[in-house]
Design brief:
By secondary structure, the protein is α/β, with parallel strands linked by helices. The protein folds into two domains: 38 residues, no CATH class; 348 residues, Divalent-metal-dependent TIM barrel enzymes (TIM Barrel, Alpha-Beta Barrel). The chain has twelve helices and 17 strands. The strands form four sheets. The protein has an eight-stranded parallel barrel with strand order 6-7-8-9-12-13-14-17, surrounded by four helices. Helix 1 links the parallel strand 6 and strand 7. Helix 4 packs parallel to helix 7. The longest helix is centred in the middle third of the chain and has 22 residues.
């Protein structure tokens, strides 16, 4: 009989490490040292009980470790009940998966706009951090995009192989005017909780806001939440704007390396980090995603990675299969950069095509994301073995 003495966790240069574990027998005699290597943790987005992709199916994907989910029935800005959080935890763990990542706790528009109500809403946000931490959550993904969480112009664009995917064509975006409440034109991803008139009104408010104003409001928010995240030992991971440029004249600031540097400088704390989304950054040819992956992994500031491929086209971009040759991104080089930078956080296959006749939530079917997960597993296994 033997057992492992608990390893001591510590932080060096922003990277979470573990000391070697001593192997001892039942009498306490030291039998040597076992080095336990920290590796990435594969995860999968799940939208709750109404998601046609069930936890039981997700559990069957090789190497799957964690579920990424959220409480979806509480208005933005309000506090999540402990009962709802506990239910998610039990459902996930009963399926044999870990409950460690939330995506996301949405940031209320009043916080982004810097309205007087923001202090109450930020306190609610901090309370949500505390409550999910109580349930074992280690990482929270969130974003600071004005109004539109993400923007695509079509959700079922046919690709040459017969699959369908999400696409963004600038000419189609330019044909839409959200300031026109009488317009019949809308885009996928628009918040259905707004009427056309309400959407026009909130866009008008943002049009009065400069990028520097948005930076100020983001800094105010960050300075309030990071001390709470530090106390709870929760890693906050902002998601880049999707796509990573301004649309409809709205300010967007989490877009490139320069702005990510500025963002990370707001708080010199490892709990203040990013979600590296290869698709959001990679939809602009100006972003060297592999370089950024290595840089921020080395800093210990990537806590979550969304891995997907996009093909850059003249008028925008198309989401494609994860395989490097299917798009414009070198997924091997990105994974290698993450590994070489010491990344040991959470990873999920982000978005997928609809293949093999599957129907469901656009971008979030089972089949292509499962293929993406196995491809990601293979890439990480390859670079890990190459490094030995």
């Amino acid at each position: 009989m033997f057992c492992l003495r608990y390893a001591i966790t510590f932080c060096k240069n922003g990277v979470i490490l573990k000391l070697p574990q001593e192997v001892v027998d039942k009498n306490g005699f030291n039998l040597g040292v076992l080095y336990k290597e920290e590796k990435m943790k594969l995860s999968f987005r799940w939208y709750g009980e109404n998601d046609p992709v069930t936890l039981e199916k997700i559990r069957q994907i090789p190497g799957m470790d964690s579920i990424v989910t959220a409480v979806y029935d509480v208005p933005v800005g309000e506090v999540w009940s402990r009962e709802s959080i506990a239910k998610l935890k039990k459902q996930t763990e009963d399926a044999g998966l870990n409950f460690e990542v939330i995506e996301s706790i949405p940031v209320h528009e009043d916080i982004k706009l810097g309205k007087p109500s923001r202090d109450r809403l930020i306190e609610n946000y901090c309370e949500n951090i505390r409550r999910v931490a109580e349930a074992g959550i280690k990482c929270i993904c969130y974003n600071f995009m004005p109004v539109f969480d993400w923007t695509r112009t079509q959700l079922d664009h046919p690709l040459p192989d017969g699959s369908t995917s999400l696409v963004y064509y600038q000419s189609q975006v330019d044909a839409v005017n959200p300031m026109n409440g009488d317009s019949d034109l809308t885009l996928p991803g628009w918040d259905a909780s707004y009427t056309r008139e309400e959407l026009a009104a909130i866009v008008a408010e943002y049009n009065e806001l400069t990028e520097e104003d948005l930076w100020d409001n983001l800094a105010y928010f960050i300075h309030k939440i990071i001390p709470v995240a530090r106390e709870c030992d929760v890693y906050m991971a902002i998601h880049e704007d999707d796509p990573c440029w301004s649309i409809f004249g709205l300010p967007r600031i989490i877009t490139d390396e320069k702005n990510l540097d500025r963002f990370l400088a707001l708080e010199d704390d490892v709990h203040h980090g990013i979600t590296l989304c290869t698709g959001s950054l990679g939809c602009s040819a100006k972003n060297d995603v592999a370089k950024m992956a290595y840089k921020y992994a080395k800093m210990g500031r990537i806590h979550f990675a969304h891995l997907r491929n996009v093909a850059l086209v003249e008028d925008g971009f198309e989401e494609r299969a994860h395989l490097s040759s299917c798009g414009s991104l070198d997924m091997f080089e990105i994974v290698k950069a993450l590994h070489d930078g010491g990344f040991t956080g959470y990873v999920r296959p982000d978005h997928g095509r609809m293949i093999w006749g599957e129907t469901g939530r656009a971008g979030y079917g089972l089949y292509d994301r499962a293929l993406g997960a196995t491809y990601i597993n293979g890439l990480f296994e390859a670079v890990e073995k190459m490094s030995k």
